[in-house]
């Protein structure tokens, strides 16, 4: 009989009917289940089900089968099936941490059969050990009970099979006998696995780094031993004493997808010692001290007490803008607009119907001038007017030479799409001056308002970094915006980009395409640029390369095509923080004007940052196609670390001062390989802010 502990557990848990108890039954169940979840049980025809109750009943039926299939896959040590189930079902749907009728969890079976790959897959999915095993004795007793009861059941069935004459009942008993013999062998294997297991060795390595002025990051690796049982959790301990007495704190980590932990709430300037130990079903193993043996929470700003560069800047700009608005509130230019009703903020689905209104003022052809086009896209589809045209409005039909200053001003306006009406009212005051620049910019604001009104959308998106020009004197400013809503819009036409490109009848020759034709030909490249420019870097410390080139009317910066909103870069490490100690070393290097570290030196071989910089510089030089020996003349920017939020920071690598910015006509012997482009500096700065 089951032990009293087992009976109590079964009463406390919602007892599950036992699943199939033989390998053949398990395979049949899994094949049946696999065929069903490949078509996704949530995608059944809703009309074929009678009422919500029946649908819920069907759903629970499939979830129960998935749970039973998981147990059987673990018992059969079928890693592929376990991974498939974990992929298609959530831990809640699998009842991953609810014991079965034997009081076992899938993770218990995996670790007691010492199947490390399956155990790791379950642990990464959030699996736990059974709470029933509160001690080594309780686990041993429970396994002995399972083995004894399985053996007893095998003996009973064997006696029945031997003593009964061959018939249908006897055939069924033989099947049960085979199933129980298989289960008896499984329980014996689990019991032997538990008895031969030992506590785990210490983690193979523990790395300690400074995460901030009040936190440390601990990264550790699994024990090297392959003979002990699977590790199911780790314990991180910290203290101000190398003897760990007294202990200041500890944390148990049972989510093993990433083996690292950040110790928060520490005191800046205080040294902390850290150690990590591993746990398996036999208990806690010995602790491994960190390397280095201690660390001091700090940040590079503590070196000279420097405040963050951007602290309070956003608030100050908002306050300044508010003051400007207040000054202009009673301006005479606002009088004609006081009686105008506020423009409605249309929803996207409602406002896009304006595209098909017969009174739309979108243009179909260009006539030598300056124009604005807005590209809205979703997946591989693009939004067009009722005449299958990309929305285009006129800015100025007498303007055939767009000055870079006007274009850069337009890109800055794109940060204030909601303030266009107010900007128009303010610029109107200066109309009397007849300034060509002000008139052009006022017309830009009018065109933006017209586009917003026709589309019913305030936010026109991001401005592409350069206008499209043709030989007919047309200039096209392009804005790009991705529509991420899944709502279906009535009367709105989304056209596949490839269809739009193939169906458009060009009115120009291939040798001299119009700006609109050029836009259609290159629209995928522009959409790719827009998507890549919104990508963010993963947390970490990066080494960036600053290279500029100047022209008559602008300065351009070298950036990678795959991430055009960031300088050319390589990742130094995952920890973005530069500690005070590391910054002092960098300052010392800069003060003696040492070259950037490309070769190891005896006195710095133990400096982790030095070694990380060596690797990063070599990788960066290869990326931008500069010989490594040239890097000896390069220097690290030592005035500050560039912080982009709390998770990303940059150290800058600069060429010699004469080569930071290449002048027009100046020869650049080292041209970067493909995969790079140059952006106007102001465009790059705006993209960085976004």
Describe this structure in words.
The protein is α+β, with helices and mostly antiparallel strands and about 700 residues long. The chain folds into four domains: about 55-195, Serine Threonine Protein Phosphatase 5, Tetratricopeptide repeat, CATH 1.25.40; about 205-300, Immunoglobulins (Immunoglobulin-like, Sandwich), CATH 2.60.40.10; about 370-525, Nucleoside Triphosphate Pyrophosphohydrolase, CATH 3.90.79; about 540-590 and about 605-690, Alpha-Beta Complex (Nucleoside Triphosphate Pyrophosphohydrolase), CATH 3.90.79. Helices cover about 40% and strands about 20% of the residues. It starts with a helix and ends with a helix. Residues about 1-50, about 335-350 and about 485-490 have low confidence and may be disordered. This is ANKF1 protein. One of its GO terms (biological process) is regulation of establishment of bipolar cell polarity.
Summarize the structure.
The protein has 690 residues and is of the alpha+beta class. The protein has 4 domains: 57-196, Serine Threonine Protein Phosphatase 5, Tetratricopeptide repeat (Alpha Horseshoe), CATH 1.25.40; 207-298, Immunoglobulin-like; 369-523, Nucleoside Triphosphate Pyrophosphohydrolase (Alpha-Beta Complex); 540-591 and 605-689, Nucleoside Triphosphate Pyrophosphohydrolase (Alpha-Beta Complex).
């Amino acid at each position: 009989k089951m032990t009293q502990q087992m009976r109590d557990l079964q009463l406390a848990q919602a007892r599950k009917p036992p699943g199939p108890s033989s390998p053949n039954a398990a395979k049949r169940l899994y094949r049946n289940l696999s065929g069903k979840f490949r078509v996704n049980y949530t995608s059944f025809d809703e009309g074929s089900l009678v009422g919500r109750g029946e649908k819920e009943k069907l759903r629970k039926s499939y979830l129960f089968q998935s749970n039973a299939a998981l147990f059987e896959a673990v018992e059969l040590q079928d890693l592929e099936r376990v991974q498939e189930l974990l992929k298609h079902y959530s831990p809640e749907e699998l009842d991953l941490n609810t014991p079965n009728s034997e009081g076992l969890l899938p993770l218990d079976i995996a670790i007691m059969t010492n199947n490390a790959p399956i155990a790791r897959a379950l642990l990464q999915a959030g699996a736990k050990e059974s709470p029933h095993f509160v001690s080594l004795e309780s686990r041993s007793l429970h396994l002995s009970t399972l083995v004894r009861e399985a053996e007893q059941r095998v003996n009973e069935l064997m006696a029945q099979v031997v003593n009964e004459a061959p018939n249908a009942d006897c055939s069924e008993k033989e099947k049960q006998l085979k199933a129980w013999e298989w289960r008896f062998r499984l329980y014996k294997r689990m019991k032997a696995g538990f008895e031969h297991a030992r506590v785990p060795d210490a983690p193979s390595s523990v790395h300690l780094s400074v995460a901030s002025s009040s936190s440390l990051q601990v990264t550790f690796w699994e024990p090297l031993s392959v003979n002990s049982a699977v590790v199911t959790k780790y314990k991180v301990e910290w203290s101000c004493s190398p003897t760990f007495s007294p202990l200041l704190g500890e944390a148990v980590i049972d989510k093993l997808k990433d083996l690292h932990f950040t110790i928060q709430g520490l005191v800046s300037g205080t040294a902390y010692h850290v150690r990590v130990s591993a746990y398996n079903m036999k208990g806690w193993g010995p602790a491994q001290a960190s390397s280095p043996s201690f660390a001091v929470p700090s940040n590079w700003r503590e070196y000279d007490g420097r405040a963050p560069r951007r602290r309070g800047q956003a608030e100050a700009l908002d306050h300044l803008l508010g003051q400007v608005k207040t000054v202009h509130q009673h301006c005479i230019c606002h009088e004609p607009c006081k009686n105008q009703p506020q423009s409605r903020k249309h929803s996207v689905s409602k406002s896009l119907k304006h595209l098909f209104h017969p009174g739309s003022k979108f243009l179909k052809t260009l006539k030598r001038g300056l124009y604005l086009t807005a590209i809205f896209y979703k997946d591989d589809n693009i939004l067009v007017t009722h005449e299958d045209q990309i929305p285009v409005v006129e800015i100025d039909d007498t303007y055939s030479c767009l000055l870079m200053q006007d274009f850069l001003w337009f890109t800055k306006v794109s940060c204030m799409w909601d303030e266009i009406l107010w900007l128009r009212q303010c610029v109107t005051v200066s109309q009397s001056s007849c300034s060509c620049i002000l008139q052009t910019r006022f017309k830009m604001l009018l065109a933006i308002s017209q586009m917003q009104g026709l589309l019913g959308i305030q936010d026109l998106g991001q401005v592409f970094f350069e206008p499209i020009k043709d030989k007919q004197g047309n200039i096209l400013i392009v804005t790009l915006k991705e529509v991420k809503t899944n709502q279906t819009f009535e009367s709105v036409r989304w056209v596949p980009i490839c269809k739009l490109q193939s169906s458009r009848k060009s009115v120009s020759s291939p040798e001299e395409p119009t700006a609109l034709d050029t836009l259609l030909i290159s629209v995928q490249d522009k959409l790719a640029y827009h998507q890549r420019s919104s990508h963010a870097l993963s947390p970490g410390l990066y080494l960036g390369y600053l290279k500029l080139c100047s022209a008559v009317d602008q300065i351009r910066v070298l950036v990678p095509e795959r991430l055009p909103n960031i300088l050319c870069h390589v990742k130094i490490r995952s920890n973005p923080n530069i500690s005070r100690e590391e910054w002092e070393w960098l300052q010392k290097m800069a003060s003696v004007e040492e070259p950037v570290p490309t070769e190891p030196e005896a006195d710095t071989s133990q400096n982790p940052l030095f070694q990380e910089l060596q690797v990063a510089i070599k990788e960066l030089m290869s990326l931008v196609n500069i010989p490594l020996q040239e890097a000896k003349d390069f220097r690290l920017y030592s005035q500050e670390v560039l912080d982009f939020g709390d998770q990303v920071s940059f150290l800058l690598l600069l060429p010699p001062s004469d080569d930071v910015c290449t002048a027009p006509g100046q020869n650049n012997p080292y041209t970067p390989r493909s995969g790079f482009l140059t952006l106007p500096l102001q465009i790059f700065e705006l993209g960085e802010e976004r």
